[in-house]
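Researcher: Go.
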Amino acid sequence: MNKPKSSGKPERVGHSVKVFCSHKQLSQTGAKAAICSSVSSDEWKATVVKSIDALVTSCVVVPCSFSHTGGNLPSSRLRAMWHDKGKTPDTKGNNIFHSDATLIKDNFKGRTKMLGELSQNNCTLEITEIRNHDNGPFCFRVELVKSEGNEPTKDMFSFVEDCVELNMITEPAEPTLIQPMAATQGEPYTVICSVMHTCPTHVPTLTWNWKTEGIIVYHRLIHSGNWETQSILTFIPEETDDNRELTCTAAFNEKKTSSSKLTLSVKRIENYNHIIIPAVVGIGTALLFGIFCIFMAKKYKNHIAELQNQEGTMWNRLSRLSRRQWVKSLTTLSN
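Model: Structure:
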């Protein structure tokens, strides 16, 4: 569809405001954000993601913010709606969200809600249970109402150039696994599993085919509308873990899953026990044998000394006995 050329001046269309926008291309996903000015005597601006991925059966959160030169207004004086682009927002069949629930399209009832506070200029929209025909584009509209009876005033603004279009994704993104080059037996090892998504209110659940302890989970905003969930697994690999398959599975809104896997390569620690143990046993045996030999040698020497002492004593006794008998014999002869 060809857009009218901007003359640099705002243009009023009925009770809505047609705005002229400057678009900024965001990195990675190609999402676009637009900052737009309204045609009112007071300047209005809005920032809405122009395009965002939405996984069928899951959910999506569309970031949206707006501002008014008059400052923040109380929620009681603001009425919000999201409607099909190019259609009248006051008609029931054209609103995917409305402050008055009776004016929401039947196939969107119970599936949309505003996450932000209008008084804080937050018009962020959540759509759950995404269906393959929820592609949009959808535009945000704000109305100023009287405090009595919630009756609208003439101040109503549709950011018709700030509409979001959903890119229907039927299959979930696969998790990304980040690992060091190789694991070493007995040393801490960390693997990171991460997955991108667009629904921070129902983040994907990441699980491992491993022990549940030692797991840390993080959620972070990458850029407008795109989030990342990380699961960090730390463990101490053993020799038996070599060539083991490690799998990370992402479950989106408990309905669709995807997984990624890797094969562990565990570097073994060199084991010299087959050399050390026999050597220690041999040295110990030799030492014990040496001690035993020394003990036996000393015992043998002591035994010999005792025998020698015993022989000397007997010889002395025999000598004394012989002398006595000789003296006795001489005495007998002399008589």
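Model: Confidence is low (pLDDT under 50) at residues 1-41.
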